[in-house]
């Protein structure tokens, strides 16, 4: 019995503390503070739970004592004042002492000697647009950042309210149409993390996943400059090229080729790990499945089914899309 109880208690502790999306496995200063607040609250709640349980057992076990009505009133008053006023006041002050600096660390205030990198992220139903204004680079569904540099993330939405949250980097913020919210984050070591839209935004809200990758500063500079200097390969000749320019290009941008602005920028498509915001692996099979079956796989997404396009034309477009990698 005891063995099973210990095992049952151990499972959540072992299972939930690591992983690409765990707040208990922080990968940056803001996230570390959030985790500290969490552990503090967990500790206090555990003490309260044990304390209340002990009092409860004591109350059940002790012999009833006879008190006069006056004494009973005094005891009641003592409980109301200590449990109803003193205890909450002290706990809330303690929580604020932890919570306020944590919230403050995610506000993009100017800090001497720091040069934050601005990244603009726009939520769409149901994908992420990611833009680096200083270098003019745009990508989608991936958030690539340098290690050790503060990031000022400017958040907005093109349609409904979404919410940006990369638990291992720090707290979340809503993305509201017509407004720009800012949050300061930082990655303290290289690695792959995961973000997820955290405000219900429609049928495919669960398939709005953000691939987050922190690179060492040199690696990040290379990543950016490769994209700045990349010349997109020419469209396939003939009908396939025309189809892409006239249909797909209405929504999708490919630098130097099409200027669509309603859908993920495809300029560095082949270098991205997933398709449809984390829906499919971006490999040769995944790409072809996306082009043919995306309305079955991610029903209702804003890309119309293209059943009218011949298989061999779509195949030529797919083969060309696979060359879009700096
Ligand atoms: C009406 C606008 C529209 C048209 C036309 C359109 N798309 Fe899309 N496309 C989208 C949207 C919106 C998404 C994102 C869907 C999502 O993930 O929710 C998308 C996603 C994609 C993706 C995955 C991108 C990624 O990073 O996940 C590829 C590849 C793609 N489209 C290729 C094409 C091709 C090829 C054509 C032409 C045959 C085309 N699209 C036509 C709107 C469009
Ligand atoms: Cu959402």
TrEMBL record:
> PROSITE patterns this protein is in?
COX2 (PS00078), COX2_CUA (PS50857), CYTC (PS51007), PROKAR_LIPOPROTEIN (PS51257)
Q: What is its main location?
A: membrane
Organism, per UniProt?
A: Stutzerimonas tarimensis
What is the enzyme's class at the highest EC level?
Answer: translocase
Under the heading SUPFAM superfamilies, the entry gives: Cupredoxins, Cytochrome c
* Domain Cytochrome oxidase subunit II copper A binding intervals: 114-226
InterPro entries found in the cross-reference section? CcO_II (IPR045187), CcO_II-like_C (IPR002429), Copper_CuA (IPR001505), Cupredoxin (IPR008972), CuRO_CcO_Caa3_II (IPR034236), Cyt_c-like_dom (IPR009056), Cyt_c-like_dom_sf (IPR036909), Cyt_c_oxidase_su2 (IPR014222)
Spell out the protein name for this chain. Answer: cytochrome-c oxidase
The reaction(s) this protein catalyses? 4 Fe(II)-[cytochrome c] + O2 + 8 H(+)(in) = 4 Fe(III)-[cytochrome c] + 2 H2O + 4 H(+)(out)
Instruction: Pinpoint the Cytochrome c domain residues.
Output: 236-325
Q: Which family does it belong to?
A: Belongs to the cytochrome c oxidase subunit 2 family.
Location in the cell reads: Membrane
Q: What is its EC number?
A: 7.1.1.9
Q: How does it sit in the membrane?
A: Multi-pass membrane protein
What residue intervals traverse the membrane? 36-58, 79-100
Function as written in the Swiss-Prot or TrEMBL entry: Subunits I and II form the functional core of the enzyme complex. Electrons originating in cytochrome c are transferred via heme a and Cu(A) to the binuclear center formed by heme a3 and Cu(B).
Q: Which UniProt keywords apply?
A: Copper, Electron transport, Heme, Iron, Membrane, Metal-binding, Respiratory chain, Translocase, Transmembrane, Transmembrane helix, Transport
Among Pfam families, the record links this protein to: COX2 (PF00116), Cytochrom_C (PF00034)
């Amino acid at each position: 019995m005891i063995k099973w109880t210990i095992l049952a208690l151990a499972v959540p502790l072992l299972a939930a503390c690591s992983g690409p999306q765990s707040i208990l496995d922080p990968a940056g200063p803001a996230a570390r503070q959030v985790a500290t607040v969490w552990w503090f609250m967990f500790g206090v709640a555990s003490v309260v739970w044990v304390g209340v349980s002990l009092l409860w057992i004591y109350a059940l076990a002790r012999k009833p004592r006879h008190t006069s009505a006056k004494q009973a009133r005094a005891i009641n008053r003592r409980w109301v004042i200590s449990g109803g006023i003193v205890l909450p006041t002290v706990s809330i002050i303690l929580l604020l002492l932890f919570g306020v600096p944590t919230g403050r660390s995610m506000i993009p205030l100017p800090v001497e000697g720091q040069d934050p990198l601005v990244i603009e992220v726009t939520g769409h139903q149901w994908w992420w647009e990611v833009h680096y204004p200083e270098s003019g680079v745009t990508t989608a569904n991936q958030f690539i950042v340098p290690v050790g540099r503060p990031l000022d993330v400017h958040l907005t939405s093109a349609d409904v309210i979404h919410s940006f949250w990369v638990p291992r980097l720090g707290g979340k913020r809503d993305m509201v149409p017509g407004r720009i919210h800012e949050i300061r984050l930082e990655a303290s070591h290289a690695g792959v993390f995961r973000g997820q839209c955290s405000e219900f935004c429609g049928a495919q809200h669960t398939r709005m996943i953000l691939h987050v990758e922190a690179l060492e500063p040199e690696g990040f500079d290379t990543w950016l400059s490769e994209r700045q200097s990349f010349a997109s390969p020419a469209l396939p000749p003939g009908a396939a090229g025309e189809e892409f320019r006239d249909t797909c290009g209405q929504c999708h941008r490919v630098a130097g080729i099409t200027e669509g602005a309603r859908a993920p920028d495809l300029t560095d498509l082949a270098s991205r790990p997933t398709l449809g915001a984390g829906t499919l692996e971006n490999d040769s099979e995944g790409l072809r499945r996306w082009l043919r079956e995306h309305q079955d796989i991610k029903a209702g997404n804003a890309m119309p089914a293209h059943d009218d396009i011949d298989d061999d034309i779509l195949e030529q477009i797919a083969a060309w899309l696979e060359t879009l990698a700096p």
